[in-house]
Write a structure and sequence with these properties.
Shape of chain A: globular
Distance between the termini of chain A: 45 Å
CATH class of the largest domain in chain A: Alpha Beta
Largest sheet of chain A: 8 strands, mixed
Oligomer: homodimer
Helix content of chain A: 40-55%
Number of strands of chain A: 16
Structural class of chain A: alpha/beta
CATH architecture of the largest domain in chain A: 3-Layer(aba) Sandwich
Mean pLDDT of chain A: 90
Strand content of chain A: 5-15%
Low-confidence stretches of chain A: none
Number of helices of chain A: 15
Chain lengths: ~475, ~475
């Protein structure tokens, strides 16, 4: 981090902490430079950065002011964990329509948690594919079997080791993506009918999976900033008489909240799970996307008894088209491997070798720095735009990583109706009810994808969406 | 087919029909030419072809003789369908060791049903991958969702239509290979605990899948030449009081027998399934590999009421590394799609588009002609070698397509012990007990892969294996 970036972080902390209020005038360039022992250029750099992130705004001939970014906090989700009896409304159709909208280039993709192609290292990845095709043509002519390519599992082992997670390559099974990894992990530890705890709100793909595999769903409400707290998990254990077979959790920047579990909470949660015989299935798919650049540890780093199965993929950072994910645990690797081997006769060596090559190239860390900063800026820009163009009373999440916003609309409009109305205007949004199996929840929430370049078109899309909401 | 090929077919029929016995001298070139109104060149061509296939042999200065190819028929499998209580011996380890052996280039791969890279169109496929990477870089940067690439589903629709199977592209869901297709089809029609009928002997991957999904397995013995007969299915229905939820069958050149169901039997089987409310899950993965070049119809071609889900992939003909298969049925497509969408968040657009491009190029039919003929010849050559070098009394299947042989060893040696002993000599074989969930079955059978070029090394491997068997 250079000087003006450090200064910007300092100022941001004051804004978020409340010592600089919305609308308050920031110190002049000269004053702040004196206070912070910084050159005018550094202060200007910091202010410009904060401006570009929508945190502060310049008023002509008057200086900088704290923008209305510092959004009012979301309402708390329901306070107690609860079992869910899936309602009659079939969410599969809503999901299908959301996914179909994704491939219509005329539809503005607020609805999907997928970065636009601009944010993927297409050229570098493409080179890796070409290199594998050229140097190892056998990768398209041979069966390769689970647990997957040794080269990739070695790369993963190395990465995890840098995060404090000790694994051998043989503890890692490659999968057809993160959801497949979670599904295999579930099948390895639980039988249909068992209680599986999930977070709420949570990514609808997780709910879809848990439903399809026939588990009993227990939803545990998240704290909007802290994510899943040990207290809430404790309550859930009590509610279910301790019979939670597995817990699926996204400790780092969960979708849709972007919240981050503290290290202390992570340690405590793993301990609780261990004591209660619950296997944690950790989805770390957003872990590489911390706004502040610090890679948070996975839960698996606090796991001495192999209570955690670490799952994930690079679908949010390298490419969603690889269809390569991973599930890691020494204890459960044989069971996961057996599940995987029973379901597919082979694995895609081409994609696995290309991914291994890319990870080995060193390009990934540079790429991450670029997109982390872009997502941070974009998330702030979209927050600012939403608070400016959506009806007064709109509340927005304060993610600490990832690239999505969780937006609570005032006046209780029906988000599912909004999905339909917005689609008529060629804008997709993900309606809140998808994020719980209990369809009464999140009726007036939507999730907004911010990994979309901030253009005039984007600005217009926010305005148009604000108009649709106002008319509901 | 040219003149000498037709003549060769005629002679082969006589040999197989028994009117020309093993060891019998064939007519002289002049005599046969007169009988068949064929030129000497045509007769020589036919004899050379039969020789190359191991059906006849030349003896110096004495003419051509029927080789010992016309193997004694296999013993019949157990005559009645039966429920299977999986024995205590865990077959997963045997399968794992088989698959691990596959990647050791020092091990001669008799044990896998996978052609050597020589038999795949690597260059042409590689060009298709490169073209997709060059022309459609978005395929590595975008989520693509089930049911899969429209281009591929259109190509499949066209192919099936040529086989008398009428489907719309929307009736087709792409999958991560044939076993994944069968698993999704099963999940769409049956619940854990339901009765699923399988053939016996059958590919162990199917058994592994059915076990992992928690179904009750009913095994129906195959006729060694006719495959699954309607009579046997009828018996199975009676045995299970009509409660067979799904039947997994490989009508065309099943692995390991290579048998072919007749069209009349196919029609009757589909009718029986329809009447009894059983869904047929058809695995057509070997259908393109008929020795006589005639593409047999899938069961699905005889299906007016959507009783059949047609599954398969191109793993045996184009590449086992694509990890792209298909499941087809108008009625069940929505349920299969729901299962697929719940298990994976996306599909591999790169592999699907490359495959579609390859199928569209017209290269496939040429390639099939080449490998069908090669597999026919190789299967005969290996049969001949096995009968020459294995202990007297060895019996060999008479496949009509595919590229594997099912070999019954005399004197009841333990095929699992043989697997171990052969591996010590760097030869893999697939032991018979893997091909049934009832581990008492096929104790002295092995499956032999013939899609391996016929070289001195191959010849030595057969001899060495014969030696291992003799010493057991």
């Amino acid at each position: 981090m250079n000087l003006y970036e450090s200064l910007a972080v300092k100022i941001e902390e004051r804004i978020r902490g409340g010592s600089l209020a919305i609308g308050e005038r920031l110190p002049s360039i000269r004053n702040l430079g004196r206070q912070e022992n910084a050159s005018p250029a550094t202060v200007v750099g910091a202010y410009e950065l904060l401006k570009s992130r929508g945190l502060i705004e310049a008023r002509e001939r008057s200086g900088f002011y704290v923008a209305s970014f510092a959004a009012p906090a979301l309402s708390e989700a329901k306070a107690a964990p609860g079992f869910v009896r899936p309602a009659s409304l079939d969410p599969e159709d809503l999901i299908l329509s959301l996914r179909q909208a994704m491939h219509n280039p005329h539809i503005f993709p607020f609805g999907t948690a997928a970065p636009m192609p601009d944010f993927f290292p297409i050229k570098a990845l493409n080179r890796c594919f070409s290199q594998v095709l050229r140097d190892e043509p056998a990768t398209v002519s041979e069966y390769r079997f689970p647990p997957g390519a040794e080269s990739l599992r070695q790369q993963l082992r190395k990465r995890f080791s840098g995060m404090g997670v000790r694994l051998a390559a043989n503890d890692i099974v490659t999968t057809s993506g993160a959801i497949d990894a979670i599904g295999l992990a579930l099948s390895a530890v639980a039988r249909p009918g068992d209680v599986v705890a999930v977070e709420t709100p949570t990514y609808f793909g997780i709910l879809q999976l848990v439903r399809a595999l026939g588990y009993k769903i227990l939803e545990i409400p998240l704290d909007t900033e802290l994510g899943l707290t040990p207290q809430r998990f404790q309550q859930a254990l009590q509610k279910s008489a301790g019979k939670i077979k597995a817990l699926i959790t996204v400790a780092n920047f969960c979708n849709p909240l972007g919240s981050l579990m503290s290290d202390a909470n992570k340690r405590q949660l793993v301990q609780l799970a261990e004591d209660s015989g619950t296997t944690i299935i950790e989805d770390d798919i957003y872990g590489d996307l911390a706004f502040d650049g610090t890679r948070p540890k996975p839960l698996k780093a606090f796991d001495s008894q192999d209570t955690v199965i670490l799952c994930g993929s690079f679908a949010k950072t390298i490419s969603p088209a690889l269809r390569v994910g991973f599930a890691c645990s020494r204890k459960f690797a044989p069971a996961i491997l057996a599940q995987r081997a029973a379901r597919v006769s082979g694995v895609s060596a081409l994609a696995e070798e290309a991914l291994a090559l890319y990870l080995d190239s060193g390009h990934y860390e540079r790429h991450l720095r670029k997109i982390r900063s872009a997502y941070h800026t974009l998330t702030a820009q979209y927050t600012h735009a939403i608070l400016s163009h959506f009806p007064a009373g709109t509340r927005v999440s304060r993610p600490q990583g990832g690239f999505v916003l969780w937006v609570e609309l005032p006046g209780k409009p029906d988000a599912r109706l909004l999905q339909t109305k917005a689609l008529e205007k060629n804008i997709s949004v993900a309606p809140g009810p998808l994020f719980s199996s209990n369809h009464g929840e999140y009726g007036s929430f939507i999730r907004i994808n911010c990994a979309i370049p901030w253009t005039t078109q984007a600005q217009k899309a926010v305005e148009k969406l604000g108009g649709v909401i106002a008319r509901l």
